[in-house]
Amino acid sequence: MSDTTTSANRLARYQTSAHIAGVVAAVLGIVSVLLPWSYAHEPLDDVAYYGAPSPLQYNYLGLMVIVLVMFGAPLALRRKGKFRDRIAWNTGARFGGYAMLATALVAVAGIGIEAGGLVNVDPGGWIAVAAGVLATAAGLVLLPSAAPRTGTFRTPAWGQILAIAVGLAAVLFAAAYALGLTDSGAFLFYLTFALGLALTLVRVGLFGWLAQCAADNKKVLVFAAFLVAFLFPFTQNGSDANMSIATQVLFFSATALGLNIVVGMVGLLDLGYIAFLGAGAFTSASLSGSLFAHINWHPPFIVTVLISGVVSSLLGLLIGTPTLRVSGDYLAIVTLAFGEIFRITMNNLDGSDGPNITNGSNGINNVPELGLFGFNFGDPHVMLGVTIGRFANYFWLMLIVLALIMVVFVNLNRSRIGRGWVAIREDELAAEAMGVNTFGLKLLAFAGGAFLAGVAGSVKAHYDVSVTPDQYVFLESAFLLAAVVLGGMGTVMGVLVGATVLKLLPEKLRFFSDYRLMLFGLLLVFMMRFRPEGIIADERRQLEFHAEDEELAEEVEGELIAYHDHYNPDAAKTEELR
Amino acid sequence: MTAAPEVARGSATGGVLLDAHNVTMQFGGLRAVGNVSMHVSRGEIVGLIGPNGAGKTTFFNCLTGLYKPTSGSVTFAGQPLPPRPRKVVYAGMARTFQNIRLFHNMTALENVMVGRYCRTKTNAIDAVLRLPRHRREEREATDRSRELLAFVGLEKKADTLSRNLPYGDQRRLEIARALATDPQLLLLDEPTAGMNPQETREAEDLIFRIRDLGLAVLVIEHDMRFIFNLCDRVYCLVRGEVLVEGAGDVVQNDPRVIEAYIGKPTVIEEDGNDA
Amino acid sequence: MDLFWQQLINGLSLGALYALIAVGYTVVYGIVQLINFAHGEIFMVGAFGAFATWVVMGSPKQMSWQAAVFGLLPAMIVGGMIVSVSVALLTERLAYRPLRDAPRLAPLITAIGISVFLQEVVRLFFGTIPGMPDAKRAIPFPTVTGISGRSFQIGTVTVQNSAVFTIAALAVCTVFLWFFVNRTKTGRAMVATSQDPDTARLMGINVDRVIMSAFAVGAALAAIAGVAHGMRYGNIDFRMGFLAGLKAFTAAVLGGIGNINGAVVGGLVLGVVESMATTFIPGQFGSPAWKDVWAFVLLILVLVFRPQGLLGAKVVDRA
Predict the structure, then answer these.
(1) Is A344 in Cβ contact with C105 (below 8 Å)?
(2) Can you tell me the distance from the alpha carbon of B123 to that of B104, in angstroms, rounded to the nearest whole number?
(3) Contact B146/A438, CB-based, under 8 Å?
(4) Where are the alpha helices (DSSP H) in A147-217?
């Protein structure tokens, strides 16, 4: 204790110098953009010009401006006031420094690798590194600020909505831009930049303020977010490659969200989740009218979706009923076994080892395009001058499916059932002793999760055109779990972020694809060790994983009150009246 | 069986609510509870005392559906006791725990609302579609839970996480949570463990007020003074059997009880051999 | 009837393999109540360690059976054990130990992560070690003269020499385990810790060391199983731990998880059930392609009708 106090006292004398050093570093960074970073033209989509920054360098420039503000603001705001005190300038500055250094290092490394040697790095690149080092050093000298209290700023409604609009537009633009990058180095640079920027803005407290804006305008936010997602195909000019990736991200998110009900809300580890997706896909493919299917009944898709969901949830009941009575640990391994059995069974139903239903490892091919109310999802059409292709059609359909799963997720969470789930997670024995039907609720989550997977799978069968057993193996389940764990157990946003990151990375970083699984395995281990609650944490989950943290408990309390007022607006109102 | 139950039955204010008859609980060769008979009537506060290892908790678990007695019967409101804790709650008997078992990362209000679970019927479809039943029950559960929090004196702490509550408040919150299940009989497992005298007095007051609501209360306790002030009748359990049963002052002054708590080790030795 | 005896022998040798792995699950579960999903990968790593030992010894091919059985085989087993035990201890120290007080979901997810990680590390990097073949495909396991591929007849029943090795290894290990648990200080400390870790700590038992020895014992037996697997099937690959681990876990649950004798019995029963199923279930569902399914069905049946396992679990339900 005394050690930290004395070192803090020692550091206190250098605060002003550190702020000035940080400003200098940011200016240095701005100067570097005006110089070429690389001698060769290929790396990072060409960063080899004097005075003409590339788009990537403009992004970096934006980061510099923000870092400049972080370090400069405390110099400018000498007097006490809400802007000086409620915003965590120093913490933000420190993370801005890290972000500068990280992006500069990635840039230099990228140039070195792609052009074959660090010789190709021009002075601009080295100046950026130097600026990063200086900013990081300055940031480390700064005493960390108190936690930001930006949520307490009063903002007029139009300002809040404007903030939401700007934020979402930034997300849309960033996503479209990232998808457009084809060079691995450039993508990695952009990713580092985006993560660094986001982290800086979170630390300084901007997200706290945005979260407040969002909380005050939930409906606007949700509507706007879907509008933005809906508009996404129009930014792609009919490019199938990117739309295909985006649609896969949606499939992955929808499935991961279903898994998150089971893992995140009830705390049951389901390692065979992909098999429920597969069961849905096989059911749907068998009923689709494909020439390879062995069932001669082709109900309309609406019926098929329901049948697929029911088949999956029946399988869930079959597995869950014996297992959930025993112990949560067994569920993990039984579902793991179930995933394997599913694959084996689908392989065996080929006519020689069993009745021919799935054509064995060949699977069911040529699944026709989805038809819904006479609309064929394979047909491209032109809308507002932009060609909307097959992938965009499925993208929109999956957007609707995702929205439905989100509604299920959120509404269940905020109900008697959701409370029962939390109680089970916290203390199953006490929950049972308080009259909560623990077995029934666990089974509901498990079978319900399976149902949602079945629904997603039935669309996926049409999207993938062919359904084979090896699409639905354990590693895919582990991959889904990684998305849930990375994003945040028990949150919608977290899973969307996790799924997007995990699906996008291998698509964009080709060199990385062989190491993909190894790194995901490692990711699971590291997340559990250092941030078990995920990137975007569910407050209660965070508390459970950090049982000792009293400060956190106080902090979360405030957020839970807001949550209560949400689902019980009457009580909140009456209290206001008093 | 002594003659005392007959006497007490006569003095009971209502009918018999909980009736345990010759309950025996055997773990392998160990007989933790042997031939214990006990009854609790409506509107009555009954105490269960006994030295450590007397089988109080085992007996308690037989009453709450955690254990199924090896022999003997337990009836509640005239019906045989269902064998699962959840169903026991549903039948109208709720409990607290000796070492507090709140849902620590839920607010006080949420904790109590979990208690309402068994008296509400909203299903998944109601909840997902936000059907009227969900909204009505959610509103009712919130109102009732706030009422109960006020009843135990925690109305100002409804939005506090239960782990952030002081110890005494946690005990009261557990009682509120149990009351939320609309019980006819409340079972309190050492409700004053770890409390200071002031808090103990408040607990006593709270239990009287619960009785005044028309509930029966069964209290397991170590604190003799607390229990003799509180209870209409007291059972003293020693070595798995009912040693004495009767009104507070009768039990308090019974030499066998004093002996069991403080008394002659040799005599207890013999008792043990007999049992 | 001959077929019955033949399948019984096959089943027992397969079951002995499962039992050797199952002990690892059960010992660790008995002490820390953790299902170490990565144990199947420890088994795989042990097999690769044994293979690597053979390469380091100069890839000897022609030798007398005495040299093979008393020189090469023990060397490979020891090499495999060194690798598997080191990996197991590293995972315990770096991944599981920091999570000992975390909610139960955390170590389970970590175990999945380690499992995937180890598989991929072997797949990607085993071949980059000088002298080692690429592990992306199955690698032929070295021939141990006198055991690999040899068999003898008892009446009409054919017995593989590798089956004799596996069963004998299980017998030796069981005796060793019994002695270890009942007659050594560490063993008794393990029993104490499994019953009550906190009290054990108060009694001066170094709980960390006990947990590490549990991981080590399990890994050592898994390495023997790895060698046995190599001799039985003639090759090893990075995926071999997944299904074997799953089966071994089934065996551990079947016998009663946490119970060492249970793991042995459970393994043998599971092996026999599997081989009998492929012979005596009529029609298409009796084909070998379904044997894993039957093993799994057995797991579900056990959970329904006897969740504490055949011999009774130390810890039945800690949900």
Answers:
(1) no
(2) 25
(3) no
(4) 157-180, 184-204, 206-216
Instruction: Give the whole-angstrom CA distance, residue C10 versus residue C162.
Output: 11
- DSSP calls for A69-129: HHHHHHHH--S-SHHHHSS-HHHHHHHHHHHHHHHHHHHHHHHHHHHTSGGGB-HHHHHHH
Q: Amino acid identity, residue A318?
A: L
Encode pLDDT of B74-91 as tens digits: 888 888 888 888 888 988
Question: Cβ of A351 under 8 Å from any chain C Cβ?
Answer: no
Rounded to two decimals, what is the model's pTM? 0.82
C35 shares contact with chain A (CB less than 8 Å): yes
Residues of chain A short of pLDDT 50, as ranges, are 1, 562-578
- Closest Cα of chain A to B258: distance in Å? 34
ipTM given for this complex: 0.89
State the nearest Cα–Cα gap between A328 and chain C, in angstroms: 6
DSSP B104: T
Domains, chain B, in order of start with CATH, read 1-12+40-92+183-265 (3.40.50.300)
State mean pLDDT over B97-103.
88
Structure confidence by residue, pLDDT tens digits, C158-173: 888 888 889 999 999 9
User: Is residue C156 exposed (0-12), middle (13-18) or buried (19+ Cβ within 10 Å)?
Assistant: exposed
Contact between A322 and C104 using a beta-carbon 8 Å cutoff:
no
Q: Please give the pLDDT value at position B261.
A: 74
A509-551 pLDDT tens trace:
766 778 888 888 888 898 888 888 877 777 777 777 777 676 6
Indicate whether C149 pLDDT > 90: no
Q: Record the tokens describing residue B149, joined without a space.
A: 């929090």
Task: Return left, alpha or beta for A564; rule: phi > 0 is left, psi -120 to 50 is alpha, else beta.
Answer: alpha
From chain C, the residues in CB contact with A348 under 8 A are 287, 289-290, 293
How many contacts does A have with B, using Cβ atoms within 8 A?
130
Residues of B in contact with A544 (CB under 8 A): 105
Tell me the pLDDT band of B269, cut-offs 50, 70 and 90.
very low
Which residues of chain B lie closer than 8 angstroms to A423, CB-CB?
103, 106, 114, 117
CA nearest neighbour of A188 among A108, A107, A96, A98:
A107
Q: Where are the domains of chain C?
A: 20-240
> Residues, chain A, total?
578
Which pLDDT score, from 0 to 100, does residue C313 have? 61
**Touching check for A354 and chain C: CB below 8 Å?**
yes
Among A422, A493, A458, A471, CA closest to A211: A493
